[in-house]
Amino acid sequence: MLQFYNNNISAIINVILFYIAISSPVDFITNIILKRSLSRQDRENIMKNLPNFKSELLLSFMDIGQKSALIYSQMSWYELATYTMEESDGVFSKVHLHIGDVVTIHEEDSGECYAIIKGIFKYKGNDDKYYAFITIDWFDNINRIHNVLKCPLFRIQTSQDIRWRRIFPISIIDHVQKVHFVYDTKIDLWIKNNYYFTAI
User: Which residues are CB-contacts of 76 (< 8 A; sequence separation ≥ 6)?
Assistant: First the structure.
């Protein structure tokens, strides 16, 4: 009887933890749900490539309007996130983010930029609400064209390259999978496939 009771309590706690609301820092994103917890090994692999985790996380909280030093350290890592986004024309769309997805981010200085999602996590803010964040590696345009395909070539940001931030609030993403990259093992570079498109 005690074992049955403990199993039920454990299941209830898991359901409650799953449904702890993720707050959105912007009005156009709602219903944020994070799914499939990462293993400890996967979390450690992500963290070892984030040498400036605390300072970048603080900058991300500043991006969403929280300017003070972080007082909590509660966070959890996930494989995917879903949310509803209201487009500028008033249309609502369901967005699915997975680790490994290529996303488009509008950067003030460079315009449209591309990145690959390396991690998705929630972190407790000073207002006692949880917020969703992503960690990314940027695609660096090396201003070269593939000889055969005539498509631009990119290099992926290395863990030692700290020129660009890697941690951002989930609201930074403009588009998911609107571009397609192919890795060329022979030249150790990524090809932006300009001929890839989504059928209507």
Answer: 34, 37, 121, 122
pTM for this model (two decimals): 0.79
| Residues 33, 18: Cα–Cα separation, whole Å | 9
Q: Do 140 and 154 meet the contact criterion of CB atoms below 8 Å apart?
A: yes
CB 137 within 8 A of CB 118: yes
Measure CA 84 to chain center.
Answer: 15
Q: Does domain 2-192 have CATH number 3.90.25?
A: no
For 75-87, the pLDDT digits (tens) are: 899 999 988 888 7
With vertex at residue 151, the alpha carbon angle to CA 150 and CA 157, rounded to the nearest 5 degrees, is: 140
Domain limits, the chain: 2-192
Cα–Cα–Cα angle for 171, 110, 70, rounded to 5 degrees: 40
32-46 tens-digit pLDDT: 899 998 999 998 998
**DSSP string across 49-92:** T-TTHHHHHHHHHHHTT--SPP----EEEEEEEEEEEE-TTS-E
Name the nearest CA neighbour of 117 among 140, 100, 131: 100
Helix (H, G, I), strand (E, B) or coil at 50: coil
